[in-house]
Amino acid sequence: MKRFMEALRIVPRVAWLIGALAYLGLGAFSIYVSHHDPNMREWPSWGRALFFGLMPLLVIPYVALVGYVYADARRRGMRYVVWMLLAIFIPNALGIILYFVLRDPLMSPCPQCATLVKHGFAFCPKCGTAVARACPQCRRAVEPDWSHCAACGTALAR
User: Fold this and answer.
1) How confident is the model over 35-63, as pLDDT tens digits?
2) How many CB atoms lie within 10 A of CB 14?
3) Residue 110 buriedness (CB in 10 A; 0-12 / 13-18 / 19+)
4) CB 125, CB 118: distance < 8 Å
5) Alpha-carbon span 71 to 55, nearest angstrom
6) Phi, psi (rounded to 5 degrees) for 119
7) Which residues does residue 148 pair with via DSSP β-bridges, in sequence order?
8) pLDDT tens for residues 136-158?
9) Taking a C-beta distance cutoff of 8 angstroms, is the pair 96, 65 a contact?
10) What is the model's pTM?
11) Residue among 101, 141, 98 nearest 121 (CA)
12) Exposure check for the chain: N or C terminus, fewer CB within 10 A?
């Protein structure tokens, strides 16, 4: 539950506001439709209230998820506007699912200057401090358990 609450804090307040306004707008529109549609008048009043109260409620989680995609992509150093637009315009929430499948790892702070460094960088782009193990020949980042560099084939000292 703690991780869920932390994730909810990432969602921008503007997204919550847009979700609430969309809920109120769709609720008002559905009430207007229910009074002017002759077929809806035949429904029991509790059925109309349930339908028009719950249907717009689906908008709030969707807008919150789009807001989460925006904020999370931004903190991971990804193209956050593009991901937000994909989350909005790819139907059936497939854009949101794609984001969760394809998102980059979180950036880590440089031990020297605390600048956020993307995963896979061997050196801090601001101060040049080594943040990961690097190949002595080509200077690319290598995994700790590799015996040879994947980029140039140089043998790595343990």
Assistant:
1) 787 887 788 888 877 887 788 888 899 99
2) 11
3) buried
4) no
5) 26
6) -60, 135
7) 155
8) 888 888 888 888 988 888 888 87
9) yes
10) 0.74
11) 141
12) N
